[in-house]
Write a structure and sequence with these properties.
mainly alpha; 4 helices; single chain; globular; two-stranded antiparallel ribbon; about 55% helix; about 70 residues
Length: about 70
């Protein structure tokens, strides 16, 4: 089961991670999917996970949150 990150545009955690592994930046993914341009709620998840200022601590905190919601 995919973990939805952006409900407005149907973007999953797995899709984001695959695209990042393929060399795309989070900003490029936002531009091509619309992620972050709907309600904006996913922005608070994407920045601590994959943004330029993401840290191991911020990644762990968000991944723990997502795991509890699954």
């Amino acid at each position: 089961r995919d973990s939805s990150i952006c409900y407005c545009f149907g973007v999953s955690k797995e899709e984001i991670e695959k695209r990042i592994a393929d060399g795309e930046s989070i900003d490029q993914i936002r531009g091509s999917t619309g992620m972050g341009w709907g309600c904006g709620g996913c922005y608070t998840l994407t920045e601590p996970l994959w943004g330029e200022k993401a840290t191991e601590e911020s990644r762990k905190r968000i991944l723990d949150l997502l795991a509890r919601q699954a």
